[in-house]
Amino acid sequence: MQDSNSKELGLYVHVPFCSTTCDFCAFYQERPSKKGFEQYFLALEKDFLAHLPEQKFSTVFIGGGTPGLLSALQIKELGKLIKQFGVLPRCEWTVEVAPNEISREKVEAFLEAGINRLSLGVQTLDPVFMKELGRDHNVSRALEAYKLVRNAGFKSVNLDLLFGAPGQQLCDWQDDLRKVVELDPDHLSTYCLTFEEDTALYAKLAKGAISIDPEREAEFYEWAWDYLPRQGFGQYEISNYAKPGMECRHNVNTWEMNDWIGYGPSASSQINRVRRKNFSNIEQWAQALLTEQPLHYEEWTELDNQELARDAILFGLRMNKGVKVNRIAERFAMDQSVFSGIINFLNALVTEGLAEQEGGNYRLTKEGRIRCDAIGSELPELRDQLVAI
Fold this sequence. Notes:
The chain has 389 residues and is α/β, with parallel strands linked by helices. It is 44% helix and 21% strand. It has helices at residues 34-50, 72-84, 104-113, 127-132, 139-152, 170-183, 200-206, 214-230, 249-255, 282-290, 305-318, 325-331, 336-351, 366-374, 378-387, and strands at residues 9-15, 57-64, 87-97, 117-123, 157-163, 187-192, 234-237, 240-242, 259-263, 268-271, 274-277, 299-302, 323-324, 355-358, 361-364.
């Protein structure tokens, strides 16, 4: 049994099954099959038994893959399994769903299982760019799915949006956001399209069929940052917006370097100063658990306080509230030399106009946020600078 000293403990369940692969997706996935589902559920229970925390989970996030490929019965089984191992009474419980997998029966099963927050992978409401992204649903299906979820009684709904698709102009992005705002969701996640290796989009990029335009992407970011707060969606992280009180607690828990445990193939965890990743192969992951072999992982990294403090700074800077370095230093018993180095690093950002400081709290400026996220090469550079301290 594992212990966690965090006030918050998150649970992540990875459902690896996908019926199709979107052109931009690089996540581990498996084609659905009866054998695969049976093997998955047998091993998942063993995974829970092998990694039991002493405290109850305060947030649950079921992602994928496509969790919506689970049948209504399997959704209820998953809910029972999670509850069996302990969730707090007011637990935030999210599931990611693709519009094509939504049905009344499944939505009712989600609610019965205990899920109280749904994230719908709409991506765009523009039919041209929907096709560019290789999605297997159309705009009308996305709208139908959203209406079904709302009518079923879900009071916390997030819509995932992507921007920066090949050929997309600022006016297209503006039109997309206006349409989405009219739907009146509770939360919006807006992500710049990235070109991951081993994806269809990356292959097009490598061949020169499409190109990246950082200046265009920056314009998309800035327009959303200005427009969405005026529509009642407060920005609390570079890519995330919420109506008052509807922020995703699970994500905030992760960004603040609290602990979480991941279950399922390829799921990652951070618990007791260790980051680990389960095998990204359902056969390998399941066999080890079902045959009760000694536990092994695809990745295993032991973290010291200084590494946790640095990551708390990096992830904290992505949030609009910024970071209070003194609190992080106290929480992680930061060495004085590391503390001084981080202060020098942050003050350099202030000098360059990339951050602002007030009362010991550092926040990125608009230019800092653009360099942190929109121009993809900048973030590794910032990480390298900080880790080198």
